[in-house]
Amino acid sequence: MSDQPGPASRLDTTVAHPARRYNYWLGGKDNFAADRLSGDQVAAAFPTVKQAARENRAFLQRAVGFLAGEAGIRQFLDIGTGLPTADNTHEVAQRIAPRSRIVYADNDPLVMAHARALLTSSPEGRTAYLERDLRDPGSILDDEQLHATLDLGQPVGLMLVAILHFVRDFEDPYGVVGRLVESLPSGSYLAMSHGTYDGLPAAAVERLEQANAATGGLSRPRSRDELARFFTGLDLVDPGIVPVGDWRPAPDADRPDPVDICMYGAVARIP
After folding, report:
1. Could you tell me if residue 66 is inside a domain?
2. Which alpha helices (DSSP H) does 46-162 contain, by range?
3. Looking at residue 9, what is its pLDDT?
């Protein structure tokens, strides 16, 4: 019997975690009182947060669909996976290209436990799961499971969806993304969504900052210009950096008001 602690023993259910809070906003049941309290505090300041979570998820699905389809990507590294829900990265990719290979990484042991149980690959493809933290990109890039699943000599779709606003400035978010991007070959892509206060009235920003401080300062929303720095030297895919609801929506889709979502999305090719 292994003497390594299991997921349950490593969980701190007294502290809110972004993945479990996001699960709560999406109507899931894999969350704890601290996550629900944090989620309710944010919702009180930003009542459309549940719609924002749904729109962000839809952006991920459209971005993966573009990468697996038009861009021809067959390998994905999805960091900050979140708890499994409908149409996860591998499901979207493998519907288009069944041989697609996906590595998921998250720092919440509950996420990884659920991922290993529920995120089953197509017979032709492969998935792997790393309990790693985005803020330590070297530990992800050096992981044996990653190299057993992905060929980093071939293009990879790097998915950083609604995760970087949990990397504060002192944790070097630009250096983290730069380290990941420089490890990938030409023809790879970076897909990212990121929270923002752009367009919000000052009173709403103040309420959100109070809610953020009350829950431990989990997030650091950034402006469009700050988000653009992550894509320096990369080739943005049309329509560029836009509100997530405006990134290649279905022709008949009802586009939400960007102020109700407060999330940018973009995809860029690594030259």
Report:
1. yes
2. 49-68, 89-96, 109-118, 137-141, 144-149
3. 40
Residue-range definition of the domain harbouring residue 61: 8-269
Q: What is the pLDDT of residue 14?
A: 82
Q: Is residue 2 part of a domain?
A: no
Residues in the chain: 271
Tell me the pLDDT tens digit for each residue of 122-140: 889 999 999 999 999 999 9
Using alpha carbons, select from 47, 53, 46 the residue that is nearest to residue 24: 53
Mean pLDDT of 241-251: 96
| pLDDT attached to residue 11 | 62
Query: What CATH code is carried by the domain that includes residue 80?
Result: 3.40.50.150
Q: For the chain, how many structural domains are there in total?
A: 1
What would the DSSP string read from start to end of 203-258?
HHHHHHHHHHHHTT-------HHHHHHTTTTSEEPTT-SEEGGGSS--TT--PPPH
